Amino acid sequence: MTSPHAPELREKIKLETPHRRLLYLVVFLLWLSGLLWLVVRGFSDAPVESARCEQWSPVLMEIHGGLGFIFLWFLGSLWVHMRRGLLLQRNRVSGLSMLSVTLFLVFTGWGLYYFGDENLRKLTSLAHWIVGLALPLLLTLHILLGRKIPRWKAFR
Ligand code: HEM
Ligand code: HEM
């Protein structure tokens, strides 16, 4: 049986509260695990010999890599959000920028697993974490710009 609210829900670009909160949590933990990895390694790609680094950097990357998969699931869950935003022409520039940035992180994250060439890996790592560190800022901007849209236009 279809819910009487189904057509109304389909109208929404705005995410439901639990969905939005879980997305924020995943983005935050992904960002934090990347940042902590950089901190324990002193923001350097030189091999570090400290015991703290040896102990924590693999654990942090296991957590980060795992969260990356969860993030991909969330990206898929935003399909309707993105589709409606694009069709209704709401927040398109910042939305498409968000999509490009997240796809860039996914692609460079994949590259970090598979690129064999050392120089290419170094470059990929640098690009991945510089863009990654800026992700919460870009997401905040996207949300603020989205919220500036008059209510009736965003179907809130
Ligand atoms: C084509 C791409 C996209 C478009 C057109 C788009 C459009 C929008 C619009 C119009 C809003 C304001 C909704 C409102 O407050 O009523 C919004 C908010 C938001 N967007 Fe996007 N977006 C896109 C991609 C993304 C991506 C890739 C992410 C996350 C990685 C994202 C995460 C969010 C979040 C968390 C909000 C706040 C939602 C809320 O307050 O419930 N968006 N977006
Ligand atoms: C939220 C912002 C992010 C930050 C600050 C960040 C930061 C980092 C850092 C510092 C590394 C280690 C780089 C290296 O090994 O040289 C890394 C690796 C990685 N990241 Fe991210 N990242 C972010 C988002 C993402 C996203 C969205 C994905 C995928 C969906 C992702 C997937 C990966 C993967 C697969 C690795 C390699 C893991 C490994 O070597 O075991 N990251 N990230």
Report a brief summary of the structure:
The protein is mainly α and 156 residues long. The chain has seven helices and no strands.
What would you note in describing this structure?
The chain is mostly helical. The protein folds into two domains: 15-70; 78-156. Helix content is 78%, strand content 0%. It is built from seven helices and no strands. Helix 2 (17-40) packs antiparallel against helix 6. The radius of gyration is 18 Å and the shape is elongated.
Question: What are the SSEs and their pairings?
Answer:
Layout: H1 6-10, H2 17-40, H3 51-77, H4 79-87, H5 92-114, H6 118-147, H7 151-154
Helix pairs in contact: 2-3, 2-6, 5-6
The structure holds protoporphyrin IX containing FE (2 copies).
One protoporphyrin IX containing FE binds next to helix 2, helix 3, helix 5 and helix 6.
Q: Uncertain spans, ≥5 residues at pLDDT below 50?
A: 1-10
**What is the overall silhouette?**
elongated
- Gyration radius (Cα, Å) is 18 Å
**Helical residue percent band:** over 70%
Largest sheet: none
Q: Could you say which small molecules are bound to this protein?
A: protoporphyrin IX containing FE
Instruction: Write down how many β-strands occur, each being a DSSP E stretch of 2 or more residues.
Output: 0
Domain count: the total is: 2
> What is the chain-wise order of helices and strands?
HHHHHHH
The proportion of residues in beta strands is under 5%
Roughly what is the average pLDDT, rounded to an integer? 90
Rounded to the nearest angstrom, the distance between the terminal CA atoms is 25 Å
Class based on secondary structure composition and strand pairing = mainly alpha
How many helices does DSSP assign? 7
